[in-house]
Amino acid sequence: MPTAHPITFGPQVCARLNEGATREWLVPDGVGGYAMGTVSGLRTRRYHGLLVVAGDTPASRNMGLASLDAVVTLPSGAVVRLGVHEWADGAIAPAGHRLLAGFALIDGVPRWRWRLGAMVIEREIAAVHGRPAIAITHRLVTGGPVRLTLEALCTWRDAHGERTADGPPPAVTTAADGCVVEDAYRISGPGFTPAGEWFRDVRHRTEDERGLTSTEDLWYAGSFHAELGRPGEIAEVSAWAGDLNDQPPPAGTAVTAARARNRAVVAAAAPGDGTQATLALAADAFIVHTANGPDVVAGYPWFGSWSRDTMISYEGLFLATDRADEGRELLRAYAGTLSEGMLANTADTGKVEYNTVDGTLWFLHAIGRHVAQTGDDDLAAEMLPLLRDVITYHLSGTRYGIRADPADGLLRAGAPGHALTWMDARVDGVPVTARTGKPVEVNALWINGLATVLDLSARTGIPPGPAERACPQAREGFARHYPAPGGLLHDVVGGAGEDPVLRPNQLLAWSLPHAPARPDRATLDRLGAALLTPLGPRSLAPGELGYAGRHRGTPAERDSAYHTGTVWPWLTGPWVTALHRVGASGADLLTDIEGHLSEHGLGSISETADGDPPHRATGCPFQAWSVAEHLRARRL
């Protein structure tokens, strides 16, 4: 059985911050929290830390244990600091990355090895899956004896913000084997000695690039101490939230269990090769269990659950990895959010919102794929009445002007100040790509959804309702309005006029199971010449009005470029599917991403990338729909 590719780096990457600090690792806890950092050990984001705890929803996270800095006292009495921090003035101190012999990510468990002459010390980090708990081990590999001190740098703040010494320090109380911080989380380990000091002006260089506040202050809560006398001896530290009296397993045991669990996740997905195995393990990071059942984190480190992302990702995350039972539970839970024919979109804002035209249509698609691949006619019978209501509302009209045009059966949407498609970025409340009218992928999804209802009706014997008449009308309307010169499709019709700009949205009209159009290879090649990059299609072709080749700068600058040239790896899935439909192979597109698995979010695929070469990755380093669509496309 193939296993996930090990990802390893030597000192030429680890010991050079411009190399090692741009490669990020993630250890998810299965409930929305995580540990995250860089190969070099430098915290470059406000989101980097060893214990990041999810709240009532995966989006409401708090940063807890930020860093556990190792300090080694050699037999000679010399003191060597293995941690690494950057400060507001640009200084790097300590600079423990210079002693790194290597980094390895094997079976989802990150491992560092520092060489101090004849002595090697190894650190591993793992999550206790299913609870907000992290295990950290330090092992003497060769040499010794050595005295090891582990300094706990702490905070308790919203993961999106900062905490500084201008306010009160975190309240720390000493426990029998460590300390409790803010009554929110506990750290346990050997020989705890309390401290109490601000480490001021810790810098996060990536936040500088993102135009955000880049410094914070950390509280030195205390240190743990262990004597490692001979090779094989370990120092174990655990940090956890939730029930602070429910101590997790010893850290060494937790690391072993995490590695075994990750191997089992990969084996259950029955991957065809090492890359599929790597993606199957990456997919596991996004599937979380909350008080309401299974859910999907759209991306790490800052996203929570978004219904559009969840439904686009559904087939790749659940059906391509043998997790259909969890998926069924998720679909039933999401169905409970339907209102006026629309699916709730996001919990990131802390409230229920109904503000997409396509999220609901992707929900119909996900149900259709689940039933088609699993034969779950019971779910089909349960969902079909709800889906008929969705169709009825869309035909008669629902929020934001979403309504099928009686003249051609196509779905129209738009409201001032709102961007309802997946191209939803706004700057100062103004949509960058409003796409008011009848967007091409929305109507491809609409027709696909209508046909899905007909399929479910045929399977169950339950009448399909208005979809029976609406589907052929919409298909005819699509064939009449969307074709553009050269075999391409208009991006939006029925708005301020036909929109011939080269965007990738037309891929959905060629790739969905009930696609309303069919390309030829020449058309795909023509589109590819303008849009394709090694990380996937651009969101707008170079040369088009408003094209932005760099997804950089302040939040407003980044949002302006988000869908006007930025590369979106998730769209590789529809592109490969469209090629498959015309009898062509997309293997070269899927192979392109393999190098990316070891250059940004390790073992995963990023949210976005610059439209211009060298297509540097941007956005979340770990993105659900990017992974899911690559995984799905590899199963074609």
Word description of this protein:
With 636 residues, this protein is an alpha+beta fold. It contains 17 helices and 33 strands. The strands form 10 sheets. The protein has a 9-stranded antiparallel sheet with strand order 1-9-10-11-12-19-16-15-14. Strand 29 and strand 30 (536-537) form a beta hairpin. Helix 7 runs antiparallel to helix 8 and helix 9 (377-396) packs across helix 10. The radius of gyration is 26 Å and the shape is elongated. The protein starts with 6 loop residues before the first strand and ends with a helix. The model has no long low-confidence stretch (mean pLDDT 96).
Q: Which keywords apply here?
A:
alpha+beta, 17 helices, about 625 residues, 33 strands, 6hp_glycosidase-like_sf, about 30% helix, 8-stranded antiparallel β-sheet, 9-stranded antiparallel β-sheet, single chain
Radius of gyration: 26 Å
- Strand segment count: 33
The overall pLDDT, averaged over residues, is 96
Spatial strand sequence of the major β-sheet: 1-9-10-11-12-19-16-15-14
**End-to-end CA span:** 20 Å
Q: Count of helical segments? A: 17
- What proportion of the residues is helical, as a percent range? 25-40%
Topology of this structure?
Blueprint: E1 7-9, H1 11-14, H2 17-20, E2 24-28, E3 34-38, E4 49-54, E5 61-73, E6 79-81, E7 84-86, E8 92-95, E9 100-106, E10 109-116, E11 119-127, E12 133-142, E13 146-158, E14 172-175, E15 178-181, E16 185-188, E17 193-203, H3 205-209, E18 215-228, E19 234-241, H4 251-268, H5 274-284, E20 287-290, E21 293-296, E22 299-300, H6 307-319, H7 324-335, H8 359-374, H9 377-396, E23 403-404, E24 411-412, E25 426-427, E26 430-431, E27 438-439, H10 440-460, H11 467-481, E28 492-493, H12 507-511, H13 521-531, E29 532-533, E30 536-537, H14 555-561, H15 572-581, H16 587-592, E31 608-609, E32 617-618, E33 622-623, H17 624-633
Antiparallel strand pairs: 1-9, 2-3, 3-4, 4-5, 5-6, 5-13, 7-8, 9-10, 10-11, 11-12, 12-19, 13-18, 14-15, 15-16, 16-19, 17-18, 20-21, 22-33, 23-24, 25-26, 27-28, 29-30, 31-32
Helix pairs in contact: 4-5, 5-17, 6-7, 6-8, 6-17, 7-8, 8-9, 8-10, 9-10, 10-11, 15-17
